[in-house]
Write a structure and sequence with these properties.
Layout: H1 2-24, E1 36-39, E2 42-51, E3 56-61, E4 65-66, H2 69-75, E5 84-87, E6 94-103, H3 109-123, E7 128-137, E8 140-149, E9 156-165, E10 168-177, H4 178-193, E11 196-197
Antiparallel strand pairs: 1-2, 2-3, 3-11, 4-5, 5-6, 6-10, 7-8, 8-9, 9-10
Length: 207
Amino acid sequence: MEYMDEKIIGLINELQERVRQSKESSKDENEVLDSFVTINDEVIPFEEKSLFGGRLRILLPETFDSMPSEIAALKYPSEKRPGLIYTNESTSINIAFNYTESPLDDTNLDTFKDNMVQVLKHSQPIAQWLEDGVKDVDGQRIGYCDFIVPTSDVPVYILLFFVALDGRTLLCTFNCTEEEMKEWKPVARGIMNSVKIDFGEKGERDI
């Protein structure tokens, strides 16, 4: 029993030290997520999710669940709402996936990103634009843009990123309130950087 107590205390001390180091370390937006992050003294574990028939792998918080359809209908009133939405308990932080019919491959990702930014700036003229670009993460090209949108309730931070999946566009959207942005923006970037697309043999997609 004494040995077990010492082992538990050791594990607790190790976790506390990792939390302390996490607080002290600078938050690099390009950093790959670890197995957990610490936000407002809360340790949030992450796990790799396999989505779209195992074709997409991405790190998401273990505490996030699929958003119930009735809540999704309220938060995303358009009939073209994302087909898959993960959310925290209060539904203030959401990660949505929309596998569209829009054609896309790596060769036209830059053009698609530029067109996407133009459309969004036209549709959201009072949004505060932060950044956009195309990056290579472990051989996977990802387009992205982020901005803050005023709403009737509170301003919302949005990170939109997209990849080519079987010649079509997979849109991924992270959003949280502006108040939560300071802590969650680096996490959102880490989630984006964790994206992996699985291919079949000889580089061919296996669907």
